[in-house]
Design brief:
Oligomer: single chain
Structural class: mainly beta
Order of helices and strands: EEEHEE
Number of strands: 5
C-alpha cells in the first residue's frame, strides 16, 4: 500500500470480536471492521470497547481498517 492512498481518521471501538477484530464507529457514524496493526501488536497494547483509536482505512475497501494507535 502506498502512503498517499491511505486515509487516516479516528473512531471509537464499539465491540471486540473474535480473532483480534474490532467493530469501530467513526465520527461520521459509519461502522468499520478493524484489526490491530503489526507495529502495536508487538507492544502488547490492549484495546477495549470504548477506547478512542486512530485507524487507517483500506484504499480498496472502506469498510476495513487497521488500528494504528490508541488516542488518549
Amino acid at each position: 500500500m502506498t502512503g498517499e492512498r491511505r486515509v487516516t481518521t479516528e473512531g471509537t471501538v464499539v465491540e471486540a470480536l473474535p480473532h483480534a477484530m474490532f467493530a469501530i464507529e467513526l465520527d461520521s457514524g459509519q461502522r468499520v471492521l478493524g484489526h490491530i496493526a503489526g507495529t502495536i501488536g508487538n507492544q502488547a497494547l490492549r484495546v477495549n470497547p470504548g477506547d478512542r483509536v486512530a485507524i487507517e482505512l483500506s484504499p480498496f475497501d472502506r469498510s476495513r481498517a487497521r488500528i494504528t494507535r490508541r488516542v488518549r
